[in-house]
Amino acid sequence: MKNPFTNILNTRGKRNSAVVALTVVLAVAILGTLVSRNVPKTSDEPGNTPPDMAALRGEYFDFAIKHRLDYIPFFEEGKAPTDSTEYLFWAFAVNLDNWGEDKGTMTRVYVDTAIHDHFEVGEIAHASMWKGWDYDGEKYVAVPGSISDKPVYALREYSADVIDKRTVYTITLAQCAYTTYPPSVEDMANYRTAIVSGDLSKLSVTRTETFRFYLNEETGEPVFLSHTLSPAQAFFENTGSSQPLTEGISSREKYYDYFAGHSRQVNPLFAIPNEEENALNANLMIFAFRNLEAADFQKGSTREEIDDILNKYFGRTVGEYITPYSEGLENGNVAPTAWSFHGCNRLVLTRLSAEDNGSFTGVFDVYEIPEGEENLAAIDKALREGDTGRYQSYFSQSATINWYEIEDESEPQGFYMRYNYIIPGKAQDWGISKGMSEGQVPLTPFLRLMRFVLTFG
């Protein structure tokens, strides 16, 4: 079949050729105006000059925060998940500033509409989410917990292609860990400035992700076609020191085994150092009680025992032994108040660096495994081998940890970690004593949010 444009050009002469060409140019210009309403502007179209990558880095830094790319589920094109639980935290986070008195509550209609407006997906199966949201058939109510702070993404690759008469954008972004936790407004501004300039030297890249999307012509909102994790990168970046090795296993397996065997050291994860000294004291006391081998919850532990365990793992002790999670006893010892933990964390190494001072810095993906999970052995086997795709629903955050390895023959692997700093992506929660008043609780980022959710939920 002949191209209609060929017939026109062959029969109408040069004047009509010019008219057709002008019409095509105008159509392309109008299309470009329509699809650029909610995406960083660029001249990266066929035949044009390359885009301004510095400008795009800044614009996609903002784009990632506005659309909470950190909460978008992973899926291949044409395979967007149909379970509501995959989207609930995303739906909550993208509207965080607009909930008003409905903070902590989302209607089924809102969730369904938000999903269908931003993903090509069929009917959604609505259900409650463990440790996240209770669902009664009409609305979702938040279970007290935390959400991640605003994400830090750095644009690495960008392309725009016209497919089926619409522009499809493909962006590859590096998700970066905070250098301090929680990040301040000034910190976020500094991250943006560094990323725009292309300088990631002071940021730790936790993972590289690729998004494909187009813009809804009526709303200008992105409709996501896929979100994939880029192929695994090298775990180790040589910085001049030797890589820690355990004969016969990879670094990922080595550290997976360590944290699985020392799960109480990372459940919950907490930031250290922390400018909120009261919160840090409380977290360190929890760590001490959970890791003292001979802890007596009735008679308590001596201050010397607490000092010893904290100095062993952190090279420091607490500034105050009495916290909302610890109390003094008449015998002079310190005992924990009533609190509990549920489930466990599993840490999967994604990047490892050896530092000049002999320490190591690792970036870990953290998976929260529910209490009572019957397939824990199978999950452990898969995560240890790097087969994380089936368990993305358990992915919680990325954390950056710096440590020294201290030789100890009594340890199964011949060493233990002494932590210099831990920077989690978000605070983690734990059970709180029923008899404790809000005023007694140190307001960590999680507890601030929990109070906010409980107030409005």
UniProtKB/TrEMBL annotation:
Superkingdom in the source lineage: Bacteria
Name by which UniProt lists this protein: Uncharacterized protein
